[in-house]
TrEMBL record:
UniProt organism field: Actinoallomurus liliacearum
Protein name stated in the entry: SDR family oxidoreductase
SUPFAM superfamilies: NAD(P)-binding Rossmann-fold domains
InterPro entries in UniProt: NAD(P)-bd_dom, NAD(P)-bd_dom_sf, Polyketide_Oxido-like
PANTHER family: FLAVIN REDUCTASE (NADPH)
Source superkingdom: Bacteria
Domain NAD(P)-binding span(s) in chain numbering: 7-199
């Protein structure tokens, strides 16, 4: 399978690229700075230096992809439009080329869901939503853009991401949060996303994923 990965030099994106290559996929990693991509050269890895915010600059990168994955995000807590602008640009580029399958990493913390336990619903998430209100607002608008497209999309909503060795074990909820799912390793998140690509049941759905 031919995969195009945005945010490939980030912590989640790096796992996606590495695991995709391990699974035998052909990978196009789109980055702003190739020096930040912590993945060894590989015969099935093509690194593209481009600005994701420019649809014209990324059209070629998505043109032949069987699936496109966005792991774009931001690390600070101030106002931002990174996710929404990136999502809109990718959607526009995919529309021009006819590419269909799109998976975007979002965040479970911004959504209060019936599957949440009382502590999560009334204590943890309200605090998190205040602290990360700018980032969540940006991600929410990115989700709106994706849902408004005619792509075969999947929005993946993980909880707190941690950097530890993957176990290959995780739980998912389709259009519903994972009860007690407060964290997941970036490695396991990447494993889950790569599995979801070929699962028709996840198309045009929100998938919560957690340990």
């Amino acid at each position: 399978m031919k995969l195009t990965i945005f945010g490939a030099s980030g912590r989640t994106g790096t796992h996606l690229v590495r695991q995709a290559l391990e699974r035998g996929h052909q990978v196009t990693a789109v980055v702003r700075d190739p020096a930040r991509l912590d993945v060894p050269a590989h015969e099935r890895l093509h690194v593209v230096t481009a600005d994701v915010m420019d649809p014209a600059a990324i059209t070629t990168a998505v043109g032949e992809a069987d699936a496109v994955v966005s792991a774009l995000g931001h690390r600070d807590t101030g106002p931002t439009t990174v996710c929404q602008d990136g999502a809109r640009s990718i959607i526009e580029a995919m529309a021009k080329t006819g590419a269909r399958r799109f998976l975007m990493v979002s965040a479970a913390g911004m959504v209060t869901d019936p599957g949440d336990g009382p502590l999560t619903r009334y204590v943890a998430k309200p605090i998190l939503q205040r602290l990360l209100r700018h980032g969540f607002a940006d991600m929410g608008r990115a989700e709106e853009a994706v849902r408004g497209s005619d792509l075969d999309w999947t929005i993946v909503r993980p909880p707190r991401l941690i950097d530890k060795k993957g176990t290959g074990r995780y739980r998912t909820g389709i259009d519903r949060s994972v009860r007690g799912g407060v964290q997941i390793s970036r490695a396991d998140l990447a494993t889950g996303i790569l599995t979801l690509i070929s699962e028709d049941s996840s198309v045009r759905r929100h998938v919560w994923i957690a340990d």
